[in-house]
Amino acid sequence: MPDAVPTFKSIRLPAVWRALALTLIAASLAATARADDSDVPSLAGKRIAISMTGTSHYFDIKTFQAQVDEVKRLGGTPITLDAGRNDKNLVNQLQTVVTQKPDAVIQTLGTLSVIDPWLKRISKAGIPLFTIDAPSQYSLNNTTSDNMATGKALAGQLIKDAGGKGNVLVFNGFYGVPVCAIRYDQLKLALKDQPEMNIIEPELRDVIPNTVQDAYSQVSALLNKYPKGSISAIWAAWDIPQLGASKALVDAGRTEIKTYGVDGTPEVLELMRREDSPIGAVVAQQPVLIGKTAVQNVARYLAGQRDLPKETQVPTLLTTAANLPEVQKLRGDN
């Protein structure tokens, strides 16, 4: 985080946003996503490469489509690439980007140890590089949620719901993805102050593909090992494994165990509506705003604005059954 926070023009936010008081905006944000589209420069005549690690779930799909739509709205031409959640494909994809020589590249997600050498090549080729949820040293600007505040809020809700007691099952299959690592680090940090709470070892490993089915199977098997009262919560850095775990709890009649995750995938929010739902909380991201903001940062840079912050953070919303309708309205889900 930078030492100083830049000053921005005030933004009038919807009343429901103010009333919720749920946005997790850190005091030292590098930048705040702008709500005013009127000052965004044109991308006419510009080719923007939109490189996706994958488009297999809600966050991916919404972020991708928002980028495509915003590039078109600003008069540019999107070049779309999808690696299908395969690291080898992603490396080949980034190599292809260099040869295509677009006016700018936006890379969404990816394990830094895999993508950074290729992001370096893009940067060295003189192609302006931007990222989403991938804080590479070679990126001019990374658009992301405030993942530190997100992780802290989710951990706080978990601890509150558990009454500061009990064991926690954790899915930790993607610690190499920076946003997942940040969220998990915040959970571990919060649990240091909770002597009666422990993470069950070994940790569970979420996988891609078949994330829901695999999480369902892993949790179902463990429920036989851990009787009622021995597990308080299940945590995941994103909510697709949370969905699988929650379905396993429902089918086993073990909804005394609550689940926690990040994204706000519609299927997870729908399951939260159930009276006996095991979903304790999910921190809802705003993927449409994230994708749109990234493209707007590209447009500003290509128009000559060279003072963009290294990171632009988009607010997230801690969501429980109590405020679910308001969150869905705010995100435009309804």
Automatic annotation (TrEMBL):
Residues 48-305 form the Periplasmic binding protein domain. GO terms for cellular component: cell envelope. One of its GO terms (molecular function) is carbohydrate binding. GO terms for biological process: transmembrane transport. InterPro entries: Peripla_BP_I, SBP_2_dom. It is found in: Cell envelope. It holds the Pfam family Peripla_BP_4. Residues 1-35 form the signal peptide. The keyword Signal applies. Keywords: Signal. Belongs to the bacterial solute-binding protein 2 family. This is Ribose ABC transporter, periplasmic ribose-binding protein. It comes from Pseudomonas tremae.
